[in-house]
Amino acid sequence: MVNFVQVLRDHFVDRLGKRAGLRQHSIAVDDAGTIINFWVPKHKKAPEEKQKHAVVLVHGFAGDGMMTWGFQVGALAKRGYDVYVPDLVHFGGSTSPSPDRSVAFQAWCIAAGLAQLGVVERCTVVGFSYGGLVAFEMATAFPVLVRAVVVSGAVVSYTASMNDAILRRFGVASITDLMLPDTLRGVARLLTTAFYKEPWLPRRLLKDFQKVMFSNRKERGEMLEDMIIKDEAALPAPVFQQNILLLWAENDNFFPLEMGKRLKEDLGEKATLRTISKAGHLAHLERPCVYNRSLKKFLDQVDAIPSSN
Fold first, then answer.
1. Taxonomically, which superkingdom (predicted)?
2. Are 199 and 286 in contact (CB under 8 A)?
3. CA 83 to centroid of chain Cα atoms
4. What is the gyration radius of the CA atoms in the chain, in angstroms?
5. Of 160, 203, 209, 273, which alpha carbon lies 20 to 30 A from 148's?
6. Is 232 helix (H, G, I), strand (E, B) or coil?
7. What is the pLDDT at residue 307?
């Protein structure tokens, strides 16, 4: 029986990537056998042709790179940006034998892959949800690589109290129950609550989505547990060198807008908060044109800033 989500992933999303001038490329980033799958520009520009910097799009927990960013890659490539879309470890085509489940490991793997692709400085990292945690970690650990950061629906550190609040809000026992559902009812809850306007999702589509998008359950469950920080161990938000855009949905059920406002205050003058009305957690999919306009405006502003290198 045809799996419609697999067909979408293998053909429609693949076509979006290719129309944006991207190709898939797998990179071994360490000697242990960690492989990171990227969508990368098909044709490298010569240094004299480059007018805009590279943009790296980091996905969240209920998808892979192109399933998450299919509506953004074309808009950014058309604008002249070199777009890189990695799959996080244990998602899509990325694998690793390492027992490390930390956000820091994910950030290191992406940075190592980018280095092999020749991206070693002045990129903007765009992170959604769990990918936002990775984006903030990359900005902290690799300040030369990361020139600017865009984050949607994520925080710098995901604390135990934040986790408890989400569990109460959704009526689940653990973050794994929410993010790695093993029932169709759980899949429906995860997807429908991520939108402002609740979509109608047929049972067949939910079943297909569960089969395709929730693989590597053991590794991903351990990643979810590892990202939770005890409140007393959480440090104040670091003083970032980079300009930061918090691109927040006004109706995000996972990370409500109030969290975005508090985060902006914590990050200080380097951060700008822009909101998207009538959108939920998946604002980049639900209102892609609005999301893309704000994203492109920020990226153009970053390009206008003289490099200090």
1. Eukaryota
2. no
3. 14
4. 18
5. 160
6. helix
7. 67
User: Given this model, what pLDDT does residue 35 score?
Assistant: 98
Structure tokens at 181: 């559902």
Annotate 86-112 with b (16+ C-beta within 10 A) or e (fewer). Answer: bbbbbbbbbbbeeebbebebbbbbbbb
Residues 6+ apart with CB under 8 A from 122: 53, 54, 145, 147, 307, 309
Residue 50: what pLDDT? 60
Task: Provide the pLDDT for residue 198.
Answer: 85
User: Measuring CA to CA, which residue among 162, 191, 169 is closest to residue 260?
Assistant: 162
| β 123-128/82-86 pair status | unpaired
Asked if 149 and 125 touch (Cβ cutoff 8 Å), the reply is: yes
Phi, psi (5° rounding) for residue 242? -85, 155
Task: Please state the pTM of the whole predicted model.
Answer: 0.95
Alpha carbons 139 and 153: distance in angstroms, whole number: 17
Q: Nearest Cα to 249, choosing from 216, 300, 221, 285?
A: 285
- In angstroms, the Cα distances linking 196 to 11, 157, 178, 205, 284 are 27, 25, 18, 20, 12
β-pairing, 228-229 vs 158-159, is parallel
Helices marked H in 193-256: 203-213, 217-227
Q: Looking up tokens 């939920």, which residue turns up? A: 280
What are the tokens at 173?
A: 């026992």
Query: With contact defined as beta carbons under 8 Å apart, do 32 and 97 qualify?
Result: yes
Instruction: Please tell me the predicted confidence (pLDDT) of residue 155.
Output: 95
Beta carbons within 10 angstroms of residue 159's beta carbon: 17
The low-confidence residues of the chain, meaning pLDDT below 50, are 309
